[in-house]
Amino acid sequence: MTGNGWLQIALFFLVLLALTKPLGAYMAKVFAGERTWMRGLLRPLETGIYKVCGIDENGEQHWTRYAGGVLLISVVTLLFTYVLQRIQQWLPLNPQGLGNVGQHLAFNTAASFTTNTNWQSYTPETTMSYLTQMIGLATHNFWSAAVGISVAIAFVRGFARHSVKTLGSFWVDFTRATIYVLLPLSVVGALLLVSQGAIQNFDSYTKATTVEGAVQTIPQGPLASQEAIKMIGTNGGGFTNANSAHPYENPTPFSNFLQMIFIFIIPAGLTYTFGKMVKDTRQGWAIFAAMSVLFFAGVWVTYYFEQAGNPNLTKLGIASAATDTQSGGNMEGKEVRFGIANSALFTTVTTDASCGAVNNAHDSLTPLAGLVPLINIELGEVIFGGVGSGLYGVLMFAVLAVFIAGLMVGRTPEYLGKKIEQKEVKMMMLAVLVLAFTILGFAGAGANLGTVGNSLGNHGPHGFSEVLYAYTSATGNNGSAFGGINGNTPYLDTTLGLAMLSGRFLMLIPLLAAAGSLAQKKLVPVSAGTFPTHGPLFVALLVGVMVIVGALTFFPALSLGPIVEHFLMHAGRLWS
Amino acid sequence: MATTMTPPTADPVTLMPKKGSRARPLFDQTIMKRALKDSFVKLNPRTMMKNPVMFVVEVGAAMTTILAARDIASGAGIAGFTFQITLWLWFTVLFANFAEAMAEGRGKAQADTLRKTKTETTARRLVNGNGKTETVAATELRSGDLVRVETGETIPGDGDVIEGIASVDESAITGESAPVIRESGGDRSAVTGGTKVLSDWIKVKITSNPGETFLDRMIALVEGAERQKTPNEIALNIVIAGLTLVFLLAVVTLHPFAIFSVNASGSGTAPSVTVLISLLVCLIPTTIGGLLSAIGIAGMDRVMQHNVLAMSGKAVEAAGDVNTLLLDKTGTITLGNRQAVEFIPLGSVTEAELADAAQLSSLADETPEGRSIVVLAKQKYNIRGREVAAHEAHFIPFTAQTRMSGVDIDARRIRKGATDSVIEFVHEHGGTAPTELMDVTERISRSGGTPLVVADRERALGVIHLKDVVKGGMRERFQQLRAMGIRTVMITGDNPLTAAAIAAEAGTDDFLAQATPKDKMDLIKKEQAGGRLVAMTGDGTNDAPALAQADVGLAMNTGTMAAKEAGNMVDLDSNPTKLIEVVAIGKQLLMTRGALFTFSIANDIAKYFAILPAMFMTMYPVMGKLNIMGLHSPQSAVLAAVIFNALIIIVLIPLALRGVKYKPMSAAALLRRNLLVYGVGGVIAPFPGIWLIDRLLGLLHLA
């Protein structure tokens, strides 16, 4: 690890920290329907949408109707994207004349983009037309992100409100999330990326002759506009197969820096929004701090083991120490323009948040560096996490932490003035169970199937990691992969698609139910006897609960994957 | 207020109460014997099913029993190991059952004692009001019947005295041997079936039907027959059951993962079912699962040991959550009575002269205030009670109309009483009250005292300062309560001025002056509307609605039946200060649950480090690196973890029954302390524990 590397990581965190409060305060105003400086410009659009769609701006919904809205928009867009892929051959904006997408892959992709996962079992350049990418996939990047933000806001309202039955209006939250938050950020983001050299065109693919005289096809397309929302909405589905390692998507170290900021900006801002909404910003900062602790732990482990490299190569006399002229460490699967520090940081960021965009090949990470993305996702995507889903996920853990340890202050547990009782606990456990069941259940069912085995690019423990990573990524709605696995088989397409839907909706519905129950409760006033949920002690507790619950659930599986692979690597045992 | 004064039972410094007369040693011989037997009876799967965690262990134990039988029959080398695992899994279940049986046993022993007092009683029922009685069995009495009870007889049922006065031995219920007076009318009219009339006779109107008497309810309560899971217990059970499912999943999927790994490495075998069951049992929260119901029962029992009868576990739990304590001034914050503390003479009158007159007027005054005046005069001026028989003395008693009392002795007409009444008396005799009189009385009122003006015909002699005496140690206790986030409100019939002064002296956070039952009720509702939980004590019939409204209503046993019915706890010692102890017990109950739960989960980390390397070393020998405890063989590692898991239940039974140590402090400080002890401690403790058991197993050649 180098000082320069850590300096860049520190700079990244400081910029994020500086942006958290302004964006968080802005979002709090947006969702409270208060005036913001964007209002003059976007208000007509907002009211126009309400009028056209017949939405009552002051409407209020019970949690069941709120959840109904979430499901409705998700099902409709899922079907739309499925159909679009199945008939893209006959539709315009398809200069390469790409054929219709097969049913399993179309389902997988539609589920993937609907759930904010953006797992890609296909090579975009040779599978999806410009039209499919733009009105199918890119719009999902907005919708799925807006759904996540809306649910988070509704969940927070469960704490912020008291003695009421409603959580706000999904349609209003959804509209506001899209036009006041996602749209402006993407426009600015896309322009910034274009300034760095990201492309934006509708040209057909370029044919180029290389120095050696070989002919190369270089894909083109409207990349920059999709790139910005891919990051800002923590979607992660690349326009190109190489994703953010591709020079058209992520041309410079600065664009790389911007992309990482884009991934974290809304999840980080939402922690402040949360504090604002519950009228105690310390609560939001406590959540931010807990996330930061886990973030730095992840970066440190990844960076450390990537820089340490592979001892077997060192033994062969390959210098792996960093010098002024070479990066050292494990450069397999990495872009030279990003180097080890920025690759390790990107890997951590993209899996902390449920983004899943990659600027390096996760499959090529050293075993313990590869463990980090797995754990990040298995914790439930709560280290900043997906847009919205990170906040409601971490609050789920906060409720559990309060329940587990809160009794120790001699009161029935309460969080933010709300008593945590049977109903909430039931819903939280349901969500935890869904995560564990989906990941372990599918991985367990698939591990020994021949059809899965044939998809694996590696044998030994790394092959196991590939299977585990696939279902982990799908369930956590992350979308990144240990690329060694070929996901495009009917079995994997279907089961991964189901894992994505389960990881998204079976988590989100119980949480909304809990929010509905919380909103109805009275507010217990704070006193010296109240369990304090700000300050370092709570941060430590929250981190501890997340790590212990996550570790206890997944440690056996992980020990047969990355952990044993690490020991074996040091023992010099190699696999084909 | 009708309260019998008992000395405060709590140590004022620690707030944790000393135990009452019913305390039993934690491991009573007879209770242990019965508990041992019950641990086996409870193995019945239908009983076990109520406790999902332990049920899983039982199912696991049943499965390994079959496997052990198979191994032994086939003479497999693994038989010894399977057999030992089976044995310890059964022990795990038995230990948990034993904990529960121990907790229950204490209540059952109590119930047996109570049942003995419920011997066959006969009653003399009055027939149609003509004064005649008929003898019937007590069990035939119905609500509304009238009975006559005489010296030496047992009162046949719960009821209200409607005629007569008697001293009653209530030790059967309260454990307190000093007799109490029961009389018709007022707040001391309630009698309880099973208690004994010691002298005189009373006519009682029965208020309960057979099987519904206080004694019946008490037996049912201490026995735990009516025990229902409390809301927090249910919520905790859900989390525990949820975690059990998660671990079940983690262990079940380990099987295919292991098969994949065996194929990948080309060596080793997938872990056996015995080992997988062992891992599962070690991971699921058996510690808290096994002790949870014991903690709840023991909490109720602890309340009982303080001679408080909680009608439900929910009430005890709510006590831990209380935000506001409503405390009656008299008997709780102050000693029951006002006492004379100062003589303030007026004009040319000397203090001794005033003291002499005051004492003279109080010689026949049997009220505590009157007696305190006599005592103060004696202490300060050595004026002895004198023989008044030589004089022509005529004592005037206090009446509500005159609001004065006094003595006509020889030519003197000495009166003491309320300021305006005595001034009027002075005016009637042609005198005038000096202007400084009003200053003095007002000063006394403002300081929270009561002025008693003394006059002799037209001369106003001076003022006696009567003061409420705040009980020792109350200020410190209120401070502790405040640190715990509990607000105290003093309830008094005094005027606001007096109330404010006493509240300030005692250190309560707030007060409610000139409180009527309706005011009390309104206050409770207001607090509850703000999301706060309220606890209060009461004994009168007019307290009943407020007792019912409060989240914790502690009724005094000396109080009326209506009050006892309305509250959710009855203090058999009738000591209103005990409300504070009840709150502490409630908190302790919740803390014990939290502490053992946290400990239970934290333990799992070490168990992984024991069992996982043992499981995976056959396929990947490098996994031995995870064996950080250096356990000597895979079998002994698994066995050591299972044994530790079983033994920790036994080790923690005393903690579950006694409750974790509780010192009043802020939530933040409590959390820091308990997280360190039970969280961090829970992570660390199993490492040396498992290591030690592994060594012992090695020494004994058991694995």
Explain what the structure shows.
The complex is a heterodimer of chains A (576) and B (703). Chain A has 576 residues and is mainly alpha-helical. Chain A has a domain at 389-570. Chain A is built from 19 helices and four strands. In chain A, the strands form two sheets. Chain A has a two-stranded antiparallel sheet. In chain A, helix 1 packs across helix 9, helix 6 crosses helix 7 and helix 13 (367-378) packs antiparallel against helix 19. The longest helix of chain A has 36 residues, at 535-570. The mean pLDDT of chain A is 92. Chain B is of the alpha+beta class. Chain B contains 23 helices and 20 strands. In chain B, strands 8-20-19-18-9-16-17 form a seven-stranded mixed sheet, sandwiched between helices. In chain B, helix 9 (286-305) packs antiparallel against helix 20. The longest helix of chain B is centred in the N-terminal third of the chain and has 39 residues, at 79-117. The termini of chain B are far apart. At the A-B interface, helix 14, helix 15, helix 17 and helix 19 of A face helix 7, helix 10, helix 20 and helix 22 of B.
Spell out the key features of this protein:
heterodimer; A: 576 residues; mainly alpha; two-stranded antiparallel ribbon; B: 703 residues; alpha+beta; 7-stranded mixed beta sheet; 6-stranded antiparallel beta sheet; elongated; disordered N terminus
Present the secondary structure layout.
The complex is a heterodimer of chains A (576) and B (703).
Chain A lengths: L2 H30 L6 H15 L9 H25 L15 H12 L9 H4 L2 H31 L9 H26 L10 E4 L5 E4 L4 H10 L20 H25 L3 H28 L2 H5 L23 H14 L14 H12 L10 H18 L7 E2 L2 E2 L2 H25 L3 H4 L6 H16 L14 H31 L14 H36 L6
Antiparallel strand pairs in A: 1-2, 3-4
Helix pairs in contact in A: 1-9, 1-12, 2-7, 3-4, 3-6, 3-18, 4-18, 6-7, 6-14, 6-18, 7-8, 8-9, 9-10, 9-12, 10-12, 10-13, 10-19, 12-13, 13-17, 13-19, 14-15, 14-19, 15-17, 15-18, 17-18, 17-19
Chain B lengths: L28 H13 L3 H4 L3 H23 L4 H39 L4 E5 L6 E5 L8 E4 L9 E11 L1 H4 L5 E4 L6 E2 L4 E11 L7 H10 L7 H35 L7 H11 L2 H20 L2 E3 L2 H9 L2 E5 L5 E12 L5 H12 L5 H14 L11 E4 L7 E6 L2 E6 L1 H10 L6 H12 L3 E7 L2 E12 L3 H10 L3 E5 L4 H11 L3 E3 L4 H13 L4 E5 L5 H6 L2 E5 L4 H6 L2 E3 L6 H39 L17 H25 L8 H18 L1 H14 L4
Parallel strand pairs in B: 9-16, 9-18, 16-17, 18-19, 19-20
Antiparallel strand pairs in B: 1-2, 3-7, 4-5, 4-6, 4-7, 8-20, 10-15, 11-12, 12-13, 13-14, 14-15
Helix pairs in contact in B: 1-4, 3-4, 3-8, 4-6, 4-9, 4-21, 7-8, 8-20, 8-21, 9-20, 9-21, 10-20, 11-12, 20-21, 20-22, 21-23
